[in-house]
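User: I'll paste a sequence; please echo it back and then give the predicted structure.

Assistant: Echoing your sequence first, then the prediction.
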Amino acid sequence: MSTVLVTGGSRGIGRAICVSFAKAGYDIAFCYQKDEEGARQTQELIEREGSGASVFRCDVSDERQVGEMFSSVFGLEVLVNNAGVASYGLIQDMPLSEWNRVFSVNMTGAFLCTRAAIPKLRARGGCIVNVASMWGEVGASCEAAYSASKAALIGFTKAAAKELGPAGIRVNAVSCGMIETEMNARFSAREKAAFTDTIPSGRQGTAEEAAAAVRFLAESKYITGEILRVNGGAVI
């Protein structure tokens, strides 16, 4: 049986990705860092679809923890680097520790998981899908660390696609716009409406729509190095 490993699978886009692949018949492995109850709920949703679920508590920025997780994952065919954290505030007020925290999860975590996955994916001709953001393409005021980390992830995706292609491993990314998740819960209804009024779709996206894009890239055998925009037309 083929296994999909999703980082940050306890809620939001990560949970939707787990469920989407479970519906397609994959076994699912996913990790979380803090949300134990959310992880339990994701596991129940996966098992409800008749798929196996392996759950790991793992800080993706910790090399040792990542290594231990991958040593317990078998049949890996798809890695989804979804784990991410946001940060809001002015550049002039940002402590270096906060900048490092964002990069350690959003970018270093993707690097560590990709590196650990390569031997397993090479054996099965597997693929990697990274979850990036439109802010990595155009930047967002008061989200410099998040924007920069997602821009780095986009660059990493393209470099990895070139490097790993000869090994039979495809690497792509989805670049998400405003998706209805807890990460955007800090914005008021008025702020969300002001943003959605500026985009052609006129609404936020759903976690399920982002998950569908991830699965499309995972299952499209002749696509690699692609950054697929899922943003309702916010960036054209």
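The CA atoms of residues 170 and 224 lie 5 Å apart. The domain at 3-230 is CATH 3.40.50.720 (Rossmann fold).
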